[in-house]
């Protein structure tokens, strides 16, 4: 009996592509004699429980459109233990198995389900470590007197010349009117820059 499978891939940012994951999944499905009935791909954080493609995958799994899901790694599906446990419980209730290419997991067995939850906990733990390291790094930077965030915008030569020309023609121009003519710079920030550069 041919096993009907769905392929799931996820990337975190727009400059990544899910194609590499899908190519591998197609190759494995073909090698195992599976019949691919759907491909689902998201560009979203693994911490997000709600994702367009994952939501469709769940709906189709519940509708019985396939009996297995193939993904490359556990963290493609979830980075939260709670989200992972919910997904595995739903799939089990709908009689849909989960196979991962890079981790020996088969959720049709009790051992596979336990391994899935443990790996999910590890993924979440790694995420917490990264968050903690980021917080520690920011705190250290502040303690060292470093400025965080984007650097303050300075006027370009063109902008400074434009302001000088406007002020020469209209010395009493209001900051609101001047800001309207200097696109992309707020009135407050423009006032700061003019003062910093001694233009008025």
Keywords:
single chain; 200 residues; alpha/beta; Rossmann fold; 2 domains; four-stranded parallel sheet; 4 strands
How would you describe this protein?
The chain has 200 residues and is α/β, with parallel strands linked by helices. The protein folds into two domains: 4-126, Rossmann fold, CATH 3.40.50.1390; 157-196. Helix content is 52%, strand content 12%. It has eight helices and four strands; from the N terminus they run βαβαβααβαααα. It has a four-stranded parallel beta sheet, with helices on both faces. α4 packs antiparallel against α5 and α7 packs across α8. The mean pLDDT is 84.
Q: Give the class from helix and strand content and strand pairing.
A: alpha/beta
State the CATH architecture of the largest domain.
3-Layer(aba) Sandwich
Number of separate helices: 8
Shape verdict: elongated
Cα(first) to Cα(last) distance is 82 Å
What is the count of β-strands?
Answer: 4
H-E order: EHEHEHHEHHHH
CATH class bucket of the largest domain: Alpha Beta
Strand content: 5-15%
- Summed up, the domain count is 2
Low-confidence stretches: none
Radius of gyration: 27 Å
Give the neighbour order of strands across the main sheet. Answer: 2-1-3-4
What portion of residues is helical?
40-55%
Main sheet makeup: 4 strands, parallel
What do the pLDDT scores average to?
A: 84
Task: From the 3D structure, determine the CATH topology of the largest domain.
Answer: Rossmann fold
The CATH H-level homologous superfamily of the largest domain: Resolvase, N-terminal catalytic domain
């Amino acid at each position: 009996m041919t096993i009907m499978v769905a392929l799931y891939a996820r990337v975190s940012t727009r400059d990544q592509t899910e194609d590499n994951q899908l190519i591998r999944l197609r190759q494995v499905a073909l090698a195992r004699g599976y019949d691919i009935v759907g491909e689902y791909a998201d560009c979203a954080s693994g911490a997000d429980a709600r994702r367009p493609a994952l939501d469709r995958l769940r709906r189709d799994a519940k509708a019985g459109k396939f009996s297995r899901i193939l993904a490359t790694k556990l963290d493609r599906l979830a980075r939260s233990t709670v989200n992972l446990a919910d997904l595995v419980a739903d799939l089990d209730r709908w009689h849909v198995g989960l196979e991962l290419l890079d981790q020996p997991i088969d959720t049709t067995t009790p051992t596979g389900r336990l391994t899935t939850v443990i790996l999910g906990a590890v993924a979440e733990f790694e995420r917490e470590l990264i968050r903690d390291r980021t917080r520690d790094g920011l705190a250290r930077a502040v303690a060292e007197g470093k400025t965080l965030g984007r650097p303050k915008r300075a006027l370009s030569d063109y902008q400074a010349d434009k302001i000088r020309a406007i002020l020469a023609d209209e010395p009493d121009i209001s900051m609101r009117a001047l800001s309207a003519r200097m696109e992309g710079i707020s009135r407050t920030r423009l006032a700061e820059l003019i003062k910093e550069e001694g233009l008025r």
